[in-house]
Amino acid sequence: MSDTYEIDEDAPVFAIAVAAELAGMHPQTLRQYDRIGLVVPGRTRGGSRRYSARNIAQLREVAKLSGEGMSLAAIARVLDLEDEVRDLRRRVRDLEHELQAERAARPGARVFAAGATGSVVTLRAGTRVRRSAELVLWTPPQQRSHEDGDR
């Protein structure tokens, strides 16, 4: 058994009083931020607010940005963009894993470069291609037929 634990930053575990203390804010401020959709905590079955570690970090960032004179609307936009960046990074990581799995599952797949003149060259793994070339991952016809059934 491993001695390391992965912390879920999105797990809603802190009651509002604890979250307010950790963020250095009054609980009423957290309620107001929830009402306007700035930092929205999870809820228990009974409706009580539960804040995650990520929520606490967002509250601290709100306090910092607000202290620097940024409006709550601008802060909301910053938080939304940070969420989008986090989601995109997660998606890129997932796609990289899928690509690695696909490469491992298809050791015979080959990459070709097609130049502007129409010439086609098979590339070895790790070969760099000039900017004017297009890269195409070749999929054997029998595997394409069921994937492209509508064409």
Would you kindly provide a written description of the structure presented here, covering whatever features stand out?
This is MerR family transcriptional regulator. This protein has 151 residues and is mainly alpha-helical. The chain has 2 domains: 16-103, Multidrug-efflux Transporter Regulator, Chain: A, Domain 2; 106-147, no CATH class. The protein is 48% helix and 12% strand. The chain contains 5 helices and 5 strands. It has a 3-stranded antiparallel β-sheet with strand order 4-3-5, with no helix packed on it. It has a two-stranded antiparallel ribbon with strand order 1-2. α1 (16-23) crosses α2 and α1 crosses α3. Mean pLDDT is 83; it is low at 143-147.
Number of helices in the DSSP assignment: 5
The CATH class of the largest domain is: Mainly Alpha
The count of DSSP E runs of length 2 or more, i.e. the number of strands, is: 5
State the order of secondary-structure elements, H for helix, E for strand. Answer: HHEEHHEEEH
> Structural class from helices and strands?
mainly alpha
Chain-wise SSE layout:
Elements: H1 16-23, H2 27-35, E1 42-43, E2 49-50, H3 53-67, H4 72-105, E3 110-114, E4 120-123, E5 134-138, H5 141-147
Antiparallel strand pairs: 1-2, 3-4, 3-5
What brief labels describe this structure?
single chain, 151 residues, mainly alpha, Multidrug-efflux Transporter Regulator, Chain: A, Domain 2, 2 domains, 3-stranded antiparallel β-sheet, two-stranded antiparallel sheet, 5 strands, 48% helix, MerR family transcriptional regulator, DNA-binding
